[in-house]
Design brief:
mainly alpha, 18 helices, 0% strand
């Protein structure tokens, strides 16, 4: 990225201590999610668990986030955003310890359910909903998308570094014990998150709704429910190709070991992070919704092509091409959702869009893992990409006339 572009980006960001804390927690959390999403399936497979169970654990982990989303939508205001984030961090730590101890199938189920962990390497869970509302409250309409671009840039850099970190067991003895050590590191990071959240001040709480239930107006509810349904379609498609499934695919089909997987997902994350910088710039020119759709749809074509690649190298190159544009919709989608509702409605809006998304995404990894177990490796990619293309068409048709404040003001 040119130095001037980076400088303008920092200037427009208007970085405060509270924003810096949110970016720090985002980076630490996604770093932990990234290496766990690669290590955990390999760890469980080496312990002798079948692929189908690994996929089911991923589905449970994603599905549990839906429960948390509903919980925070109702109680985050009265309980307090900071306290809620501390509680979630501690549960994340407990989940990591349980996975490391491996006391049997039932312990894995408990760990998946309580930890709000991410099998995708990224996140759609309760941390994101609360932090997105905080970040929106600290940003003007004009700078909101830039703030979300920075937030996601930090996340994707952390994703790439976490992916690289997952290769550490390969640099050691590549044993179950080495992987278990990294899972304990995951739990330690969760404790660090709790400490950082405790240092935040009261300015991160919602101004109008502190101590009151968060509700959506009738107009906002209609828009958010429609968005939720469409986001769910996208997430259902995405669930077929979450990072855990991709790790299983490259591990089983092409024989890539943890060291190679770490490098692949590291580069993938760096490519994604760079593309995130461009999202806010493109959105200023063509609008949030068009940026969401026009960058997202072509990436699904690359996704569908991956399992038809004749070699591991070409499959990896197609993955990189997909990642170069596939996540530009993330900051723009988050900004758009926060923009079309009032400030005091934002946690509720985030929770109501992310809850059905999370439920939908929880279903498809089990289906995808079953397909991989049957060696029908093309189908998860074809289904995932097709559902995503359908989502792009429908969300544009439904919301092309719904403008966020900064775009409505330009008309």
């Amino acid at each position: 990225m040119p130095k001037g572009v980076f400088s303008r980006f920092i200037g427009e960001l208007d970085l405060s201590r509270q924003k810096a804390a949110i970016f720090t927690t985002k980076g630490l959390r996604v770093f932990a999610y990234a290496f766990l999403s690669i290590i955990l399936p390999v760890y469980l497979l080496q312990l002798g668990y079948p692929i189908l169970l690994v996929g089911a654990i991923s589905s449970l982990a994603i599905g549990s986030a839906a429960i948390y989303n509903l919980f925070i939508a109702k109680y985050a205001a009265s309980f307090g955003r900071r306290k809620m984030l501390v509680l979630l961090s501690l549960l994340m730590a407990v989940s990591g310890v349980i996975f490391a101890l491996n006391l049997g199938i039932y312990s894995l189920v408990v760990a998946a359910l309580i930890g709000s962990i991410s099998a995708t390497g990224t996140e759609t869970g309760p941390f994101l909903n609360i932090e997105a509302a905080m970040l929106s409250g600290m940003s003007s309409d004009e700078n909101r998308t830039m703030a979300f671009s920075a937030y996601n840039f930090v996340g994707y850099v952390a994703l790439s570094l976490g992916s690289l970190f997952s290769g550490l067991p390969s640099a050691l003895a590549n044993s179950v014990a080495d992987m278990r050590l990294l899972i304990y590191v995951y739990a330690g990071i969760a404790v660090l998150l709790a400490i950082i959240y405790l240092t935040m001040d009261a300015s991160v709480e919602a101004r109008r709704s502190l101590g009151k239930p968060q509700k959506l107006s009738k107009e906002s509810r209609t828009k958010i429910l429609h968005l939720a349904a469409l986001f769910s379609l996208d997430s259902f498609g995405g669930g077929f190709v979450i990072q855990t499934i991709l790790a299983i695919y490259f591990y089983k089909v092409w024989g890539l070991q943890l060291g190679s997987l770490a490098i692949v997902f590291f580069v993938s994350g760096i490519i994604t992070a760079i593309s995130i910088f461009m999202a806010a710039r493109i959105a200023k020119r063509i609008g949030l919704l068009k940026t969401m759709v026009f960058t997202h749809a072509p990436s699904s074509i690359f996704l569908i092509a991956i399992p038809f690649a004749p070699s591991a190298l070409i499959a990896v190159m197609l993955l990189f091409l997909r990642q170069s544009i596939s996540q530009m919709d993330v900051p723009t989608r988050q900004s758009y959702t926060m923009a079309i509702v009032d400030e005091h409605e934002r946690i509720a809006a985030g929770s109501l869009t992310n809850t059905p998304r999370t439920i939908a995404q929880a279903i498809s990894p089990s289906i995808a893992s079953y397909m991989l177990q049957l060696s029908v490796v093309q189908l998860p990619f074809v289904l995932g990409g097709s559902f995503k293309i359908l989502y792009d068409a429908l969300v544009y048709i439904r919301f092309r006339k719904v403008k966020p404040p900064e775009e409505a003001a330009r008309r």
